[in-house]
Amino acid sequence: MTEAVAAPVVPAKGLRSNALGMVSSTVIGMSSTAPAYSIAATLGFIVLAGTGFKAAAFVLLSFVPVLFVACAFRELNAAEPDCGTNFTWATRAFGSRVGWMTGWVVLVEQLLVMSSQSALTGRYTLLLFGLDDLANNRAVTTAIGCAWLLALCWLCYRGIEVSARAQWILLGIELAVLVIFSVVALTRVYSGTAGPQATTPRWDWLWPSGVSVGAAVSAVLLAVFIYWGWESSLSVNEESADPRHAPGRAAILSTVLLVLNYLLVTVASLAFAGVGEHGIGLANEANAEDVLAGLGGAVFGTSGFGKVMGLLLIVSVLTSGAATSQATIMPAARTTLSMASHGALPKVFGRVHPKYQTPSVTTWAFGLVSLALYVLLALWSRDVLADSVDAVGLTIAIEFTVTAVACVWVFRRTLLSSVRNFLLRGLLPFVGGVFFLAVLVLAAIAYAKPDSGETTVFGIGGVAVIGVVAILVGFPLMFAVQRACRDFFAGRSLTRGAVARGGQTIES
Questions:
Q1: Pairing mode, if any, of strands 505-507 and 2-4?
Q2: Which of 316, 390, 454, 473 has its CA 20 to 30 A from that of 19?
Q3: In whole angstroms, what is the distance from residue 453 CA to residue 62 CA?
Q4: Using CA atoms, how far apart are residues 379 and 42, in angstroms rounded to an integer?
Q5: How far is CA 92 from the centre of its chain?
């Protein structure tokens, strides 16, 4: 289908073109979500919210608005495949200041995620080798987490092909273990060897009836964020063999594969463990932080095979954290590179390695800032580190809201030209944007309660304080760089509204 929409010329940044196919982009998008860790660390809390077996319904339900937002990413990328993604598109739609702050919000969430994943890789590396006592030693886990972070930065620096190959391996291990876990758990349930707590899966688990409004809201707030990360497939769009179309398709495919993976693991876990408050039950608060660790021994047993699979479950969470860290460094470096290329940051951040064709300065700058932030939070307090991770939810909601609304606004003149445009560029992104705006408000209210997290500041929940302060820091930084970036803030280097004007025809 063709239509009249301006296709801006994306400035060459020196990145390696034609390096990635759609499958590699999909792998990067899926890896960024940390499927094993995300479901392991979230499923128990969804059940504890009061959903019981209907936890599966909220995992499925939360996928719908994510898919709507993915449509917005796809359409915007087809019009302008810039590795700055949200930053570039928000600038086109709403001007330089909104675009700059959008880029800042994306970088904040990526910095906070790196802290959590570094802590995860540090802890699970020790657990893999049976060093459980050291796994609780903050100094040791921090040191190992830092080593992982630097090693992954080096991989990203060495080239996009090297990074993509590493992602294939890490994600392959992760998904293989999750599938084996689910198949064995369900086989034991249907064969009657799972134990008295087991329950045969039912179709009504996928429909959220009988759940209170409060429990439903809490479950959605938890479930919706396990999908975050798929948009990383679009940050490598300029390195794709088909920049305008493949990354967008990879984003959609990533979300679909994620929901299938999450549903399989969720149904298998619910069926095998049940929702009891004791033992391996998913409503047991002692298991909530990692339900897979609690279920591994019960599902696989304690024989030789069971011990091997127990180790592989640890490996799957470890590779999940490593893959996510690597897939977070890549988009963060490219967002910053794009901002510098468009004049929104000093030119030094726009440097690309002449041989490896990767963002040289921004990759290491992001890695070192992430390392410093992780060490600071880890040494300061585990409670502050935990609340910093939860604060990512606020930034994700802002990112998705702005991008979805930007899609509607950028394409507003062509929405009524076809049914396709009305749905994929108008209605679905608008509904997704409204949903995440509501999530932002509800999350801010929930996180502001003194008992919502691990810390409080002047009677306000630490999660809300950390999230809001981290976002607000962007304003003085933006004003500080304005003098050196006058063309950008005057709207000359990245023109507002250019995507929506003109008569050039592009395929969509």
A1: antiparallel
A2: 316
A3: 22
A4: 25
A5: 24
Question: What tokens were used for 360?
Answer: 């040289």
pTM here is: 0.89
Q: Kindly report the CA angle at 245 between 244 and 246, in degrees rounded to 5?
A: 115
Assigned token pair, 294: 């609690």
33, 374 Cβ separation under 8 angstroms: no
Domain that holds residue 137: 22-381
What are the b/e assignments for 20-31, b being 16+ CB within 10 Å? bebebbbbbbbb
At 353-398, the pLDDT tens digits run: 888 888 999 999 999 999 999 898 888 777 777 778 788 888 999 9
Burial 190-203 (b: 16+ CB within 10 A, else e): eeeebeebbbebee
Phi-psi region of 11 (alpha: psi -120 to 50; beta: other; left: phi over 0): beta
Residues 6+ away with beta carbon under 8 Å from 423: none
Is residue 269 a part of any domain in this protein? yes
Please state, as a whole number, how many other Cβ atoms lie within 10 Å of the Cβ of residue 56. Answer: 28
Give me 118's structure tokens.
Answer: 């570094």
Query: What share of the chain has pLDDT > 70, as a percent?
Result: 96
* Residue 105: inside a domain: yes
Looking up tokens 């679905």, which residue turns up? 428
Q: Which helix (H) or strand (E) covers residue 57, if one does?
A: helix 55-61
Residue 507 pLDDT exceeds 50: no
Q: What are phi and psi of 3, to 5 degrees?
A: -160, 165
pLDDT digits (tens, 9 = 90+) for 233-275: 899 898 888 889 999 999 999 999 999 999 999 999 999 998 8
Could you give the CA distance from residue 373 to residue 23 in angstroms, rounded to a whole number?
Answer: 33
Per-residue pLDDT tens over the stretch 108-144: 999 988 888 888 888 889 888 888 888 888 889 999 9
Yes or no: say if 4 and 504 are a contact pair by the CB < 8 Å rule.
yes
- In the block, tokens 């990759």 appear at 363
Q: HSE-up of 503 (CA within 13 Å, CB side)?
A: 0
Measure the CA angle with vertex 101, ends 98 and 106; round to 5°.
125
What angle in degrees, to the nearest 10, is found between the helix axes of 428-448 and 63-79? 120
Exposed e or buried b for every residue in 238-259, given b needs 16+ CB within 10 A? Answer: bbbebbbbbbbbbbbbbbebbb
Query: Is the residue at 249 inside a domain?
Result: yes
160-191 helix and 138-158 helix, angle to the nearest 10 degrees: 120
End-to-end CA distance of the chain: 6
Residue 247 lies in a domain: yes
Structure tokens at 76: 């915007």
Overall average pLDDT of the 434-445 stretch: 91
Residue 359's φ and ψ, nearest 5 degrees, are: -65, 105
- At residue 467, what is the residue type? G
Distance CA 149, CA 152 (A): 5
If one counts the domains in the chain, the total is 1
